[in-house]
Amino acid sequence: MRFWAYLVAGFAVVALVVVLTGGDLVGATAGWFHGAFGTTYNLTQTLVYATPLVLVALGVSVALRASVVSVGGEGQMIAGAIAATVVLLSPAGSSPLALPLGALAGAAGGAIWALLPGLALVRWGVSEILTTLLCNYLAAQLLAYLLRTSLRDKVGAATPQSASLPDAALLPMPFQIILALVLAAAAVWWHRSRSALLLDVFASRRWLAERLGVGAGRAMLATMLVSGAAAGLAGWVQLAGVDGRLDLGISGGIGFSGLIVAVLGRSRPGPILVAAVVFAALTTGANGIQFATGIPAAIGTVTQAVLLGAVALAVTASRRSGRSW
Amino acid sequence: MTVLELCSASRRFPRVQALDRVDLAVRPGEVHALLGENGAGKSTAIRILAGLDHPDPGEVRLDGRAVRFASRTDALRHGIGLVPQTESLVGELTLAENLALAEPHRVVRRRAASRRLREAATTVGVAVDPDVRTRDLGRGQRQLAELVLALAQDARVLLLDEPTAALGPYETRDMFTRLRALAAAGVAVLFITHRLAEVRAVADTVTVLAHGRVAWSGAGSDVDDATLIRTMVGDLPDTPTREPRTAIGAPVLRLAAVSADCGDPIHDLSLDVHAGEVVGVLGVAGNGQRALAEVAAGRVRPAGGTRTETGSVAYVPETRLDGLLPGRAVRWSAVVSRLREPRFARRGVVDRGAVTRFATDLLARHDVRPPDPGLPVLTLSGGNQQKLLVGRELDNGPAAAVLHGPTQGLDVRSAKEILSEIARAAAGGTGVLLVSADPGEVREVADRVVVLSGGRVVGEFPAADFDDALVRRLTAGGDE
């Protein structure tokens, strides 16, 4: 209840900003809706942008159940995309198994990128927030290096990018959305499972969980690997479903946005789907606002920020009133 | 004559009438004890006096005039100091810094704060160093430090919410000496307690609250214990009479020369608990109780020595919420140690129906009230939270059980019920290690008593030979 009140308040703040700066609120709303959902093309753009957000957010939600806060989605996406590129540019990329192989490679790449912070957390108690964040920079540098050296497209110009993926490796359009829906359904099941409940116990009363055989190391490492794999999968989706080749902009901030979507959806699969579409629509619809009213498209980013602030407030308020979960 | 009073004060919360037309007056130079069961309205009364809450309807009078404090700070400006039940000091800061924090100045005046604290400490005769981080003080010292802190802020009325709940008998006595000294200096003292002995030891005036009403009020010398208990709780359940047990079995939990450090270390400590036996551990708080309990329960691995268990070991930690899942409904706390059992999940998914049925049954068997598995844990009273925790831990006949201060902060009735649970578990063959600050309850339920001092066992005797003087000498670290 309170949560919705904060969200509505968030939208109200944005509306107020629009009105106070002399904007046309009705026109802006209509423009936004048209830009995000009005045509088949616009709708598709929105859903395509929402898909990797869903994947990253689902992974983050798994880790959050064990109180593990992974902000490494960005780096894990890059690692997943690199791994997928390597596999898909090999002869395997032209085989009929190219899609599952690409998905596997992406997930494995993301998981490997989560392994290092995971081990540091389990073995030495190094804050995962710090290490996952730092690993993002490592991944970005590795990507830049590879795109200028071994993965560089030999045919193309000087732009640091890989060769195009073979057609067999490209992800046809509705498929990635189905993948996101299937994984969301699996997440619904998992969040109601006993293992998820045990992670809740682990997150709030570690000794009770250990008595039930939930080892600290395993719980934290497993959830980090899962969230890494999900982000790596998102990297593959972006690679094979949108870009068609590896370039420097492969992650495009989706790793961080996915974290915001997880928070907006309060770690629950259903709300995450909605939050991802709304979040994506705020980006894709922003141009529509600019076309319709002349309000700069940055209003989309402003709205995303205000919503994040509203949700952060809602979470803090519910925690202070003692109703954490 | 009266400095601070409640006049026909009522306070209603959703579903409970916490206070119902209560009159209560504190006078300078007097120690006033506020008695009552958990949930009788004692804390509400004190919160209102301290400016944390307001009567509705009713009024608070200061020096005979009706007042309405805006906050605790406002009340403090009028000379009313509160020592709350949960510690309110910032552990990372020194006492002087804590005082500076409480003051309205923008600049922290550490030196001045420190000087005023020393003056206040001298008034009550407490040796508290204002320049040590408060978390490095012992628990008893911290309680006294809160007292000194209130005094340094020129309190002429002191409100103490269960100041002795966490203290052992000898620290309690020390606290009382200070309270008497304060009264002699003209301060009005009002304190909440569950323990009748404390009323006898220190109080001039007694007010008993029951169900939000004043059930009895007058001079302590005018009333006997039986009457006080009756006005407080009605008739008590019978205490299980304890025959010295003959059917004590093989060891179920053995500690051999264990050492551990949980901020409160134990050294080379050896102790066996046998099946069907209750071993009571006594001592001044902070002498290794915590380390002993945590190691015995298997939650902390000992740094040296060995621990052997023969079966499951139940554990009721010192802080009861530490054993519960406070943010969730009662059912999850009830089932949490048995979540692995197949009946609580179907194809991997948690079976809420089965969990609820189990919890309902557990609440009924251990008399947790209200017996509603859907309520949030935090809506239960302390006594019922504890019954839930103890009930869950002792429910399926564990081989051994470690209970750390299981009746701390509970009213007489709830405490008795917990002790009965312990006695029942022992009769069923569980070996119980009862770590307690209360010699009375150890004497009541234990078969054997172990005295802890400086992290070592300094004495051990059958409960039948219980001797208060001996225990006191041993806990004080004297010779055996």
Automatic annotation (TrEMBL), chain A:
Which regions span the lipid bilayer? Answer: 46-64, 76-93, 99-122, 129-148, 168-191, 212-236, 248-265, 272-289, 295-315
- What CDD domains does UniProt report for this protein, alphabetically? TM_PBP1_transp_TpRbsC_like
Write out the entry's keywords from A to Z. Answer: Cell membrane, Membrane, Sugar transport, Transmembrane, Transmembrane helix, Transport
Task: Enumerate the InterPro entries for this protein.
Answer: ABC_transp_permease
GO: which molecular function terms?
A: transmembrane transporter activity
**Record's superkingdom?**
Bacteria
Location comes to:
Cell membrane
Q: Which Pfam families does this entry report, sorted A to Z?
A: BPD_transp_2
Q: What is its main location?
A: membrane
One GO cellular component, as annotated: plasma membrane
Q: How does the protein's chain sit in the membrane according to the entry?
A: Multi-pass membrane protein
Q: What is this protein called?
A: Simple sugar transport system permease protein
TrEMBL record, chain B:
Statement: the UniProt record of this protein carries the keyword Repeat: yes
**SMART domains, per the entry:** AAA (SM00382)
Q: What domain of life?
A: Bacteria
* Record GO terms (molecular function): ATP binding; ATP hydrolysis activity
Q: Which SUPFAM superfamilies match?
A: P-loop containing nucleoside triphosphate hydrolases
Q: Supply the CDD domains for this chain.
A: ABC_Carb_Monos_I (cd03216)
Official protein name in the record: Simple sugar transport system ATP-binding protein
Q: Which organism is it from?
A: Kutzneria buriramensis
Q: What is the lineage of its organism?
A: Bacteria, Bacillati, Actinomycetota, Actinomycetes, Pseudonocardiales
